[in-house]
Specification:
Helices cover about 30% and strands about 25% of the residues. The chain is an alpha+beta fold. The protein folds into three domains: about 1-95, Rossmann fold (3-Layer(aba) Sandwich); about 115-180, ATP-grasp fold, A domain (Dna Ligase, domain 1), CATH 3.30.1490.20; about 180-275, ATP-grasp fold, B domain (D-amino Acid Aminotransferase, Chain A, domain 1). It is globular, with a radius of gyration of 20 Å. The chain binds adenosine-5'-diphosphate and magnesium ion (MG). Magnesium ion binds near residues 213, 248 and 260. Magnesium ion (MG) binds near residues 213, 248 and 260.
Length: about 300
């Protein structure tokens, strides 16, 4: 198959591994920087160009769209979808997963366990908002944050009020969440492909830090999942409409709680911690499932 990988940097571990795995299975691969793409939006003959040249036809597109280029990147991906190219993850699903609040609303509709979460925009509602999520300590999050940036813990009511007020004053979109203290600064990253968790790692935050992101100095080890955790991760990915996802789960006293579902999960940490060939599994999934025009939405919605 002719596979396009949408990535801004061919040297990134995940991009390299996907390319290697695809070539090993006899596929043709081209890495394309979404920001270099421009397109002709036209129903008869939608096309994508790079530096004056129209892209050749592809069978499959693997989106690895960074958070900072979500809007442009998903527009380019949508164009591939309109051209009938099979996307590993659809543009609509990626857009959903990039908004933490929208994701949680979709997940809660399916009865998936979540930390209690509140959302408001008026400073006068802050006291009630804090009570709604069970009072301090609590976590304040930017809706579009990533890699742990924009996630703040407030240990007292005073701190919570001033942090929320400050964010609101900056017109930042935030949500407020109960702090799951029993998880002890750890969470579980479940790498879901189709209807299976193919690899899972526990990430432990550095001492004195509650955010377990590897970018924040967290350390990763192989995790063994309970059946409930496994099915929660798979259901969360399915609810978002993602074929490949990194589902992040907190282990709470009342079972697994989903924090977020990532649409471009990094492969380095999880392959290193688990020894699994995640890139190879992704290519096998594509071989089984890719069909021309077999997107659910073809960029609609
Ligand atoms: P990001 O998208 O920036 O990774 P997350 O929502 O995943 O944001 O939060 C970053 C980290 O902070 C998580 O991996 C987890 O370790 C910690 N964390 C986030 N929310 C909670 C919570 N409600 N309770 C306990 N820890 C949390
Ligand atoms: Mg996260």
């Amino acid at each position: 198959m002719r596979i396009a990988i949408l990535s801004r940097n061919a040297d990134l571990y995940s991009t390299r591994r996907l390319k290697e795995a695809a070539i090993e299975c006899g596929h043709e691969v081209r890495i394309i920087d979404v920001l270099k793409c421009y397109m002709n939006i036209n129903i008869q003959n939608p096309s994508i160009h790079v530096k004056g040249v129209e892209l050749p036809p592809f069978d499959v597109v693997i989106p690895r769209i960074g958070a900072s280029v979500t809007t442009y990147g998903t527009a380019v991906l949508r164009q591939f979808e309109m051209m009938g190219v099979y996307p590993l993850n659809e543009s609509v699903a990626i857009t959903r997963s990039r908004d933490k609040l929208r994701s949680l609303q979709l997940l809660s509709r399916k009865g998936i366990g979540l930390p209690v979460t509140g959302y408001a925009n008026k400073p006068s509602d802050i006291p009630d908002l804090i009570d709604m999520v069970g009072g301090p300590p609590l976590v304040v999050k930017l809706l579009e944050g990533t890699q742990g940036i924009g996630v703040v813990m407030a240990e007292t009511r005073k701190a919570a009020e001033s942090v929320i007020e400050a964010f609101m004053g900056l017109k930042a979109d935030i949500m407020v969440q109960e702090y799951i203290s029993e998880s002890g600064g750890a969470d579980i990253r479940c790498l879901v492909i189709g209807d299976k968790v193919v690899a899972a790692m526990q990430r432990q935050a550095q001492p004195g830090e509650f955010r377990s992101n590897l970018h924040r100095g967290g350390t990763a080890t192989l995790a063994r999942l309970s059946p409930a955790e496994r099915s929660t991760a798979v259901r969360a990915a399915k609810t978002m409409g993602l074929n490949v996802a990194g589902g992040d789960i907190l282990r709470s006293n009342h079972g697994p709680l989903v924090m977020e579902v990532n649409s471009s999960p990094g492969l380095e940490g999880i392959e290193t911690a688990t020894g699994k060939d995640v890139a190879g599994n992704i290519i096998q999934f594509i071989e089984k499932n890719a069909r021309q025009s077999r997107t659910k939405t073809r960029g609609q919605g």
